[in-house]
Structures are given as structure tokens and as C-alpha cells.
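Follow-up to my earlier ticket, as requested here are the two runs.
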Amino acid sequence: MNERPRGRRATIKDVAKAAGVSAMTVSNVLNGRMQFVSVATKKRVEREIERLGYRRQANARNLRVAEQRSIGMVIVDEQPAFLADFFTCQVVAGLANVLNGADFTLTVQGMPGAALAQSMIMRNFEVGGFCAMISGAAEARRESVQQLLELDQPVVLFQEKMELPGADFCVVRQDDRGAGRLVGDHLLARRVGDFLAVVPAQHWPAIEERLGGIGESIAAAGGEARLTVIESASESFADVQDAVARHLAHAPLPGAIIGGNDPIATAAMLYLFDHDIRVPEDVRVVGFNGFEAHRYARPRLTTVVSSAYALGEQAGRAMLKRLETGAFERPEFVLPVHFDAGATT
């Protein structure tokens, strides 16, 4: 492989010759135009840039920094109306406001898991890093994270317990397993022996953790109580009520219904009211997240208050610190939740 003349500063043409690509390909790598460059070619070009000591002119570097004053927010959700979810909205708002305060913009794109690899934000990104909220089975979620990391950009992942040593990666989540234990302990203290959890068919890591926490609470109390989990086709009012109706058509009333979130719990509670089943006298009802809407339910819903907005803020601060220093301060940030005992238990 030919080297540049001794003492002369390396040029784009030197890098291109060493990497066996065109000067335009090197320019695409330098400017983040990755829709035109494969991952393997990108890495080969970057190795030659490092080996030859190529340095861009100061004005070009400043231009690139300006281009990167944006963060990508990837939401892997099978539902087209992904921003209708209260939790997602709160996270995005907290993240956007922190970034806005630092003169960064936020680019948001939602898609089903199967569409992630070919999504525009993945193929044509001009961002300094990615934040991600990912649904699906655990193996599929991990694969989505790996796809993001292959872009060689820093990644902040929401609501997932995942360790990837050595990766440019950070997790921001709330203590959902602890939230589940709070719910379980509260109901067991009221001598509830039969729990019915209603969750969406679409898997979310936070809901998996909440169910795990309820199970731990039951086990710690001797394991005599029973937890039954049913899935609703979606989180919509009609689908939740249909799932509850189908279950209760062949099963006795549980001592408590636990919604995967507040809207699910409220839909289940209204189904009970419509069938002359009293809350909390006949069945206790608990939700999760505690956003403002839960206060409109009568009786007021017992719930666990989420730190969703603060999660977005924390992710924004973590990403900005990473871009400033070159490394994430911590691999994981875990925010607390607190129990809000309403009138439904």
C-alpha cells in the first residue's frame, strides 16, 4: 500500500487510496452520509483515517459539529399512534426540553421492530447520538439495540435492564420491579389472594419488570396468593374490556385487577361498574404510571407514580455529558417511583 510523501499532511485522496475507495466515499464517511456507505466500508475508512493521521481543517470540523447538534429518538412500537401513549409523550418531552436548553434538536421516528433497519433515521442520520425506547420480545429488543450500536454512535436506552460491557451505551430506567413489589405488598396486606394482571399483547420491558416485582412480593409472603396474567390485543379501551370480559366469562372474580398502566386499569374498572361489580368492595383495582388523567377516575385510582418526564431529562443530561467528555458517566441510571394509594383498593 502506497504511503504519502514523508512530511506532507494526509489528504482525503491519501485516505481513499489506502482504503481502496473513492474520495467521495471518504467524504461521505466524514460527513455522516451513511446511506451511501456500508458498515464494513465505514470501518475500513476510519481505520485508514486513524493510521494516516488525517485531520480535517478546523472550519470543516466546526461545520460537522454544527450538523451533529441533534439527537435521534427511536421508538420501536407496533402501534401507528405511538406518540399517543402517555408514558412515551412524557419521556420525549423531558428529553426534548433538556436538549433544547443546550441548543440541540430532537429528531423522532417511530416504527415497528421489523422496519428499524431500513428506517430513514438509521439510513440517513445526521445526529450526535441515539435515544431509544424499544418494545418486543427480549431477543428482538436486544437485536434492535445491536443495530443501533453498529452505527458507532452513543446510545441511551430507556426502560431496559441490559448490560453491554465496552459498548458506547447507557440505560435510563425507573424501578419498575420495585413498583411491582409495592403493588403486591399493598394488596397482600389487604388479604387479596387472587391477582389478575391485564397487560398489552405487545411486550414492553417495564411491564415485564412490574409483573416480576408482583411475583417476588407473592413469593416473599409465602407464595399462597395466585397471579394470573391475561393479554389485551392492544391498550385501547375496547380491547381491554374485551379481554376482561372473555376471562371473566369462565373464571371467578379475582380479588384485584392490576392494569399494566392506568388506562388499562381504568378500562377494566369501568367494565366492572357496567356489570354491577363494586370497586373496591368486590374487586380492588390498581394501575401504573400515575399521570394526571388517573385523578379523573371515580373512585380515584390507586397507582404507582412514574418518573417518565424525569427519565427523559436524565437521558438528555447523560447524552450531553457523553458528547462533551467522550464517555458516559455511568452505565445505568435508575429513578425511583412512589406508591399513590387511591380509593380503589
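Run two:
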Amino acid sequence: MTMHIHILRDEADYQAAKAAYEVYFDDEPEPGTEAGDRFELLGLLLAKYEEDHFPMPADDPVEAIRFAMERQGLSQSDLSEVLGSRSRASEVLNHRRALSVAQIRKLSREWRIPVQALIGQSQAA
């Protein structure tokens, strides 16, 4: 499956690149291979497009999480899978618990949320 990789200029380009990138999710290619390079390039293009067109809310990690959930079509149930429990997800979303370093790393890796957005000033006590 070859796709001409190019700068993402509009939503159609973004959606096509996103679909091509997601094909690799179940079987991530080895780095340094042609497929691995393609996977990495698509990820970089998507990240740049998202940074330019969908800036993350600043200063509140919960808003960054909510923004990612909305953009990626994820639910609180999906968040509970990442954080380990429904109650933990609820506490985070309601500003009753701050994210741990491990949770920040996991959210950043699995949901592609920039770490900087997740370490902002939380309102959790």
C-alpha cells in the first residue's frame, strides 16, 4: 500500500494521512525499514498539521485531555482504560486528582497529547 507522502494542506489531506497512519497501529513496522520510515513520516506530518490547526488548550491538563477526547472521538471509558479505572478517570476529569508522571507518559504516548499540555497548572487539590 503506497501513498504519495506530501505536506498536509487541508482536512482531506489530513484525513487521508490519518487513515494511512492508523493502518500500522495493529502491527507497527520496524524502525529503519521502508514501512517504518513511512510510519514515522506520517506521524510527523500529522503532528505538524494538528499543531498548526488544532492548538492544545494551555495551562490545564484536563482541558488538553478533553480536547484530545473530542478530536479523536474518545470517551471517559477510553480514558479509564488508559488511567486504570473509571473512578481515576472521573477524578482527573473533575479536577479532584492530578495526573501522575506515569499517566502523563501513557497519555502522551497512546493519545499523542504533548507532554507539555499534560503538565500545565492543574486545578486538582
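The only thing I checked on run two: The chain has a mean pLDDT of 88. Let me know what else you need.
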